[in-house]
Amino acid sequence: MTDSGATPTLARWFEYMDSDDPDRVLTMITTDFRMSVQFSKGHGAAAEFVGDRDGLVVYLAQREKSTLVHHIDSGASDGNLELVLGRTTRDDAFEASFNATAQLGDEGKVRRLLIARTPEINFD
After folding, report:
1. Within 10 Å of residue 71's Cβ, how many Cβ atoms?
2. Between 20 and 30 A from 64 (CA), which of 30, 91, 92, 93?
C-alpha cells in the first residue's frame, strides 16, 4: 500500500484491508458507524454494501483476503474528514480506481465511510 501522510486513518484502514487480517478495521469504527461501498465490477455490474458494523462484517466476509493492494495516490484532510483517490492492483496490474471519504469521530475512529470503486476509470 502506498502511504499518505495527509490521511493517516484511511492509510491504516487500507493497510489492514490488504493484510491477512482485514477484520482489524472493526477496531477502527465508532459505535454509530455507517458506511456505503459502491463496488463496480465493470460493464455496468455493481453492488452496494451498506450499513453499520454488521454491514461491514458482511462486506469483509465476501472479500478476497491478501489479494488486492490499495495504493493511495492522492489524499487530503479537512478537520475530521479524510479523502483519498487511489487504485487497487492485483499481481502488480491495475484492477480498479477508488475514492474513499471517512468522517472521524471524537476519538479518531471512523464514524462514516463512503467508498466508490470502478475498473472502468484509471487515473494514470
Report:
1. 19
2. 30
